[in-house]
Amino acid sequence: MANAISGELQNRLQWSLLSLRVGVFIVMIMWTLDKFVNPGHSARIFESFYGISGSTDIVAYILGALQLLLVLAFLVGIKKRLTYGVIFILHGLSTLSSYNQYIDGFNNLLFFAAWPMWAACFALYLLREQDVKFTVN
After folding, report:
1. HEC string of the chain?
2. I want to staple 101 with a disulfide (CB 3.0 to 4.6 A). Which of 10, 44, 88, 111 is the partner?
3. What pLDDT, in 10s, does the model give residues 43-102?
4. Is residue 77 part of a domain?
5. How many domains does the chain contain in total?
6. Residue 134 domain-assigned?
C-alpha cells in the first residue's frame, strides 16, 4: 500500500514539475523570440531596466541565440543544475530589476506575474532530480 501511494505521489510530482517547466519555457521562449522579431524592444528593455544603452540589433540576435540554446536545453532537461540555475538567476534579475513597476503596482499589475514564475523556477531548481518526465537524461 505504501509503495502504491509513493508511486502515485511520484507520478503526480513528475507531472507537476513538467507543467511548471513547460509554463516557464513558454514565457522564456516568447522573451527569446522577441529578441529576433523586435530587437529594438530588447534595446529599450536593456536601457530601461538594466541601465545598458547602445545595444544593437546584432547584440539582440546574439543574446537571442544564446537564450534560445538555454531555454531549449531547459525544456528537455539537459544539464539541469546549470540550465535550471541559470533560468532561475536570469528570471530573478528580471524580476528584481522591475522594482519601479512594483512601487506603482496598480498601474503595472502584469509585472507581479514575475513573482510566481520566479517561485516556479526555484521549485524546479530544488526538485530538478525529480523532474524526469520527458527529459533527455
Report:
1. CHHHHHHHHHHHHHHHHHHHHHHHHHHHHHHHHHHHHCHHHHHHHHHHHHCCCCCCHHHHHHHHHHHHHHHHHHHHCCCHHHHHHHHHHHHHHHHHHCHHHHHCHHHCHHHHHHHHHHHHHHHHHHCCCCCCCCCCC
2. 111
3. 899 888 888 888 899 999 999 999 999 999 999 999 999 999 999 999 999 999 999 999
4. yes
5. 1
6. no
Residue 4 located in a structural domain:
no
> By the 8 A CB rule, do 70 and 87 touch?
yes
The domain in which residue 60 lies consists of 11-126
Q: Which amino acid is at 12?
A: R
Q: Classify residue 5: in a domain, yes or no.
A: no
